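From the shared-data thread, chain only:
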Amino acid sequence: MLALLAFGELTAFEEMATNATSAAHLDDKIVLARLASQSFANFEQLSQHIRRLGQDVVELCEHFEPTFTVLAERTRPRDWHESLMKGFVFDGIMNDFYRTAVDGLDEPGYSLAITILDDTRAADHVRNRLTEDVAADTQLASRLALWGRKLVAETLGRARHLLTDPVLGIDETVVVEAIPAVTANHSRRMSALGLVA
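Structure, as tokens:
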């Protein structure tokens, strides 16, 4: 489970670093670069803990990589705003599922996972940035609302596939029962952007 969370942080690092590179404004570049750096620091913390448990983090992450690759191929953003939205939707949904899945972890792994999941700096920044632009551009708002619907459908499917992987040992019933709450949380996040889920 910690390796899955680590791979998620590595993916978040890559996405935010890409968004920083392609940002039109210097302030966006700086903030997104800092957030990318934090995601990589989270990956390093998780990696160190996994190594202390006698496991190979690269080998464990490689097990989950194909599912992330499929999602990436099916949800290619067309521009910077769609890329920001992708991270916002994907990370929000996955983090909700992760919270359910980490309940069975031993300490100190559990506290490490929760500390990372409780850090909302990236989500807060992207929400504020998207809200500002959506409010100023009705065409962007309509496009991102449609894009968000595609993203949630794809992400829910991939999340269920990931979390019911036998290697994690998570009861599928737990994952299925979490879906309504995860979906409701996603709707609230979209409403905070001024968009309908």
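The chain is about 80% helix and 0% strand.
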